[in-house]
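Open question from group meeting: does this chain pack into something compact, or does most of it stay loose? Before anyone orders reagents, we agreed to write out a predicted structure and look at it together. Recording both the input and the output here so the notebook holds the full record.
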Amino acid sequence: MILTEGSDLFTRERLDQIFPSDRADNFFEALYGEASEGAYDISLEFKGVQKNQLLFEFQLKQRPVKCLACNLTYGLPTVFERHPIINLKGIAKSIDTLLDGKFLCTGWRVGNTQEKSRQLHVLPISFIIE
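Structure tokens returned:
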């Protein structure tokens, strides 16, 4: 199996199975005690392949009548790396399953928050595969 930029392995349906949309509500419920207190929804997007890395990003999309302020998202890389609801270890295992033994995730790295617009911030994440 050769993974390429246009790999159809990570379809929208599969990404939603790996990181379901209700995970954002669970994350905010754990942080604030109420899912409705969350300022954004979180989705996982596949961005491509670079050498021995699968490139993804968490997209943080502002919820209606909420503010997606920088101070809410800039500390997230370290939180996302460890938080059990975000569950990067589980995401890596799901990716391993899709790779069907051809490759194995051996680690990951969450990059710094990038502000794409006032309504969209992203956290790049790369999964190292061997």
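Observations to bring back to the group:
Residues 12-129 form one domain.
The helical segments are 12-18, 23-32, 70-73, 76-82, 88-99.
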